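Newbie here. two chains, one complex. Structure please?
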Amino acid sequence: MDPDSLSFIFLNACIINNFVLSMFLGICPFLGVSGKRDTALRMGAAVIFVMLVSSACAYGINALLVKLNVEYLRLICYIAVIASAVQLVEMFIKKFSPGLFRALGIFLPLITTNCAILGLALFQTQREYNFFQCLAFALGAGGGFTLALMIMSGLREELDLADVPNVVKGAALTLILAGILSLAFMGFAGLGG
Amino acid sequence: MANNNRHGPSDMETFLRGLWEENPVFVMLLGMCPTLAVTNTVMNCIAMGLAASFVLVMSSVLVSLFRKFIPKQVRIATFILIIATFVTIVDYVIQAISLELYASLGAFIQLIVVNCIILGRAEAYASKNNVKKAAIDALGMGAGFTFALLCLGVVRELLGSGTLLGYPVLGSHFEPWAVMILPPGAFFVLGTWLLIFNAMRERSARKAREKAA
């Protein structure tokens, strides 16, 4: 497959180099909100949305910065863009769909400090994607994040019923599970070619 | 937090609290992304630990200096801007010192901006305490973070490639466990460390209970 094609960029970000399980981005929400399946799905949807918005914004900002020759401001601009994108999304959802706003609750503002979003903006700059490639990358990364979150929450819901020793309960068990999932996802590495 | 008693903790206690009692990685589970991502060699751990500690100390000092002037409504945005400034400095300094190191740490130097330890300490401690206390607390947290990184890095490099800091340790007949330097190894090692620390804490809690009974 052509490494520059949109489908490859999407699959690469979603499965082959999954953002959570093989690039370690967005581990905090992965450990934090993977307890229940429906919250995991909502969190995933919010992240996909913010990723798309901030990826498009970051593309524009980067073009502007390169033109003005002030690339050293990139990091500060990106984080400001992400914070305002999250704020914007929050206001937008609050106005047009109060039901969804209540459902997302605290997770929405917390997305600002999700390193997957900043990581996405930095990687798309590093790899010099064009605008449509950026969008495919954002969609793939968000999809991969949601996928990992859904698998983990499904496993954890089952584990609530299992009889495990007290010491293992909590983060330690989740991490070891994540290790096994990551091992499974490594099987996709061959697809990258 | 333990600083509610009348005299407040001494400087040494503040420092040690970050290192062990409230270790940012093992106890508070903050800053997991760099902990998992860059610990495949000991050298990376040291560089990452130093870089994060520098940003932590400098931004804590600055936040603490300006704590009276920052309006409450925009404090998070201000904190992030302060942190991003220092991260940009670190980013360029590491690039100047060693391009090789810069390449192996990748985007994770710039991702120090969204490391929750730094924002967490700025919000929870530096914005409420004087400069000296904030600096000591940040030093302790930085040391705790570096300690946690090293805990992972030593195990992963030793088992994953049979070396420490690039020097061969286990001899040529040792077959490296390739999985340890790959992503799953990071999850397994961190999970196992958490397990060990949990078991230790449980044991000391049980001993304390038996003593009291």
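Moderator note: The two ends of chain A are 8 Å apart (CA to CA). Chain A has a mean pLDDT of 85. Thread marked as resolved.
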